[in-house]
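Q: Hi! First time doing this. I have a protein sequence and I read that you can turn it into a structure. Is that right? Here it is:
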Amino acid sequence: MSKGSGDKAAEIRRLMATEGPAIEENTKGFNRKRQEAVAGMENYEELRTRAREIKEDAIERLPELIEELRESVEDNGGHLYVADDAADANRYIRDVAADADADRVVKSKSMTTEELDVNDALQADGVEVVETDLGEWVVQVADETPSHLIAPAIHRSQESIADLFREVFDPDDPPETADELTSFARERLGELIRDADVGMTGANFVAADSGTMAIVTSEGNARKCAVTPDTHVAVTGVEKIVPSTDDLSPFLELLARSGTGQDLTAYVSLFTPPVDSPTLDFDDDETPLSERDSDRDFHLVLIDNGRMAMREDDQLRETLYCIRCGQCSNSCANFQHVGGHAFGGETYSGGIGTGWEAGIEGLDTAAEFNDFCTGCSRCVNGCPTKIDIPWINTVVRDRINRGEEPEGADFLVEGLTPDEEPGGLDLDKRLFGNFETLAKLGSATAPVSNWLADTAPARWALERVAGVDARRDLPEFQRETLVDWFERRASTVPDPTREVVLYPDVYTNHVQVERGKAAVRALEALGVSVRVPSIRSSGRAPLSQGMITTAEDHAHDVYGGLAEHLDAGRDVVVIEPSDLAMFEREYERFLPETSVERLQEHSYEIMEYVYGLLENGADAGALRPGDDHDVAYHAHCQQRTLGLEAHTTAVLEDLGYDVTTSDVECCGMAGSFGYKDTYYELSMDVGEDLAEQFSTAETRDRTVVASGTSCLEQLDALLSRPSRHPVELIAPR
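A: Yes, that's right. Below is the predicted 3D structure, encoded as structure tokens:
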């Protein structure tokens, strides 16, 4: 097992067993509700676009908005302090607590205060700090850290919380049900809030023009913390500022729907502190509220702590558009199975957590969990502010790579890995990132290469040196590549209606050659002339390892190889969805705008293209009929993101196949992720959801079909029957 991977694999295994079941149930529930909540919104995309525009504008104008907000807060009678870092913020907050002669501070949920470790700072001064959010309070009582951006105790079951309360509080009538646990917590917290000296809140948004704060909670505790004590401290990041209260609407509509699937969070508090309401004295029930003074003290502490540097960082800037909804965590298969205690850093977790931790804590912290993001892009379409979270993770991975010191083992791969990366890159990343080179070598020496790679010494070496888990079957290289096969045959279409270039991705060209042959036969049967040129890999493999420079080099070579075909009016047909996703999304960062637009306009997934041909009059009778053959179909993650999975189902059904489609969004393989010894068991655990769905009484006898290489490999590992690419079903023999 590769260096350091054993301990991490063991911790992942522990979390899958102890916290995984509760996290999976809750996050999947949130995700289902989100999908239902947004499905009925006609203006969903318009709201996302508007939210994105507001954040872009606010971050661009952030220095001037801070000063505008300062003026608004001071005009209202409050104080605003901009803290450079955590130590600076805590120093100010401790001074406020000391001035208030505080014995107790009550807090509503705030990830920003978690980032500062403000509780520890106050407790060091002898101040009692009480979390009043139910989830945060459970975590505090258990002496744990939050495991989710919006649901800090999501890793705990109802039973474990009941056990915790019995152990810590020893109540006369121990609460058991959810209602009893909630009532128990609220009663205790109500008493603690009543006697507090200082209330501390976060803020989801702050309007610069008025100082108005928007605080969104499920329990109403933030309002109590803000108005019960006569001193209120609000702590929030500078990125939470928006120009005006008019800008709040799209965020309030999107936040709850994105996070928990609610149409609106239970409590939305809009107030402009210091609030003009009487201070409370629970020991005095004689004096009417109207006769009490309203002398309140308000402090807004804005946190920089690396954010202004992130603002100047073109690659990390998007992180500041995050509104902390947790959607990227809920939609992530890996997060669903381990939670934020594995897939997270000092404070922030999930897909967006890498960007936050890199900007606030540094690359070393981000490196601890960055690899949990596989770039599947499931989070992309759900992010309310359209943040390209996989790209941020890739950028951070690239920076981590470049921060590594060269190792003596680099000589092992010198010459075999023609990448553009500096020395010091982890061997496993360098090898996986240069899979095209390995594939060429494997095909040139097959079948000997396949036999040799599967010997015990070779598997031992791969595991020890490159971290390839010995339990994972290796790809079998074909001696005759797809390009070789095609060059030795003549076109069978004498009078073609269209002409295409079939892109020979690495796996299709060197491993899954039969699906490439099937694609050629299917297209030719529909009257399409096909070309299969020798073209470099798309760059997906190096990009997945954070090797951005190498991926960009691939992108330019691929476009150079395809340009002559585009010039000739040929469409580009792609079999592997992850490669098409490179053309559609990642190439926008690598190629000139006109080049990438040409490629996007004329590139199609194979079943999408077949669907289009049939819709435009091609003879379906030229393809192999389904004859009511039963099929269980799983779409690739990137295929779903691109909105292409429906084309495969439609083609199969049109040809007479009876299709059951998986609603499991991720197979767990995720390219090289499932090969690595650190993550093998997590990969298989994620895949079990799909295996179960394809092993029911209704599906277990169906032919298993999947569109992506990773999915096919994972299904073959999970099931006792082989899987096939859909084009192999429909192509004439």
